[in-house]
Amino acid sequence: xxSKAPPQESHNAMSLSRxxxxxxxxxxxxxxxAAAPAGYPAAEAQVLDLATKSIAIRSVRGENNRTxxxxxxYKQALLAGGWKDSDIEITPVDDTAYIIATWPxxxxxxxxxxxxxxxxxxxxxxxxxxxxxxxxxxxxxxxYGRGATDMKFNGAVAVSxxxxxxxxxxxxxxxxxxxxxxDEETVMKTTGLLSEKLKNAELVINADxxxxxLDEATGKPLYWVxxxxxxxxxxxxxxxxxxxGHSSAPRPENAIVQxxxxxxxxxxxxxxxxxxxxxxxxxxxxxxxxxxxxxxxxMRAFAASITDENAIAVLRANPATVGKVGTTCVPTMADAxxxxxxxxxxxxxxxxxxxxPGHTRAEIxxxxxxxxxxxxxxxxxxxxxxxxxxxxxxxxDFVAASTKxxxxxxxxxxxxxxxxxxxATDSMYFRRLGIPAYGASSTFTKDSEEFSHGLNERVRLxxxxxxxxxxxxxxxxxxx
Length: 480
Prior knowledge:
The protein is α/β, with parallel strands linked by helices and about 475 residues long. The chain folds into three domains: about 5-230 and about 390-480, Zn peptidases (Aminopeptidase, 3-Layer(aba) Sandwich), CATH 3.40.630.10; about 230-270 and about 330-385, Alpha-Beta Plaits, CATH 3.30.70; about 275-325, no CATH class. The chain is built from 14 helices and 19 strands. Strands 1-2-6-3-7-17 form a six-stranded mixed beta sheet, with helices on both faces.
């Protein structure tokens, strides 16, 4: 467990709000590009400003949730960028809020293009972090803080790029809407409300999914991924109840022991390997860029045959690929007992599952019950805000526009790979309504620096200029 930064480190780690964009980019060159794209000083500075200010806002569900302040920060930037007050809606919902900002197009008959994201972040305990999670810090061209990758930096890039597009004089034929939900990391209530309000959308660009992979040794971009589908999120509760009693008189039935036996079975169980068109394309097209020959060979072998046990074992042992092989279920929380000197009357644990498309939550819960095979263990579906959705079509206009944009930003020979997200995103609410939604973040990262939801979350600031370049191209092509 890491401790807070010592005074000397805190002194050396400068707040981003005091770093000029030029000096940041000097620390974070664009090594992957033969010729860096033209700069956008105002937009690039605004990305830093919005990213740092939003990270400093503790937008976590529960007491003192300040998600609405992130919405107000975005609104202030958009108003200064030319939006009318009447075109921006901030709606409080419970302890959070959502925001919708509309840039009307010249042709009202065309359905709007939606840019989607979220403002909330998962909890972060300062005592566990090396740096305070809600104090944005830059060191060696890397921004640290809760939300750096998920997804306040991406939100800042999207907002700033849209403002830059308007500043450039562009006149969209198709209406452009940018919206941010306020509880994507929890119950997704605001996402459901947003999708209903925007159910006439033509398509959705989700800035919270997809993205690029950087080479671990050189830092150069290897390939870029867009997501056209996602696994279904599910939470199941395992519970055992006993009469309890005095700890000096143990009984054969102990709720904690019984629950532990069930958890060991769940932890050891592997769901059958599966594949669809998106995951097959990912393994086939991403394999040439995998630095580890063993993993690369496993990717090719699995793409050729989903019954290759050796390939499956290798891919399941790799955090970057395990979620793409099939359904996964893992214990995430446990709670048991009521006193140190008493037999437990209750023991409960939670299993988080990411379900491969084509299966229902009920089907997976039934399979878990068979795996546990203990009548005393009760399984309950406690999932909130999640459901099964079909994949979005591989629309030619999106594929062409996103490929053009990402290559303009990161290099003309960059490989573009379709994929399926292992995590849950707001896209599921739009797909549920039949609206094509694509995870298409412009941000590139190394696998070793991926700390979303974890300690010391970070993002490389070399992503700023390519990110703006990407959105200017993408939005121009899809909205013109």
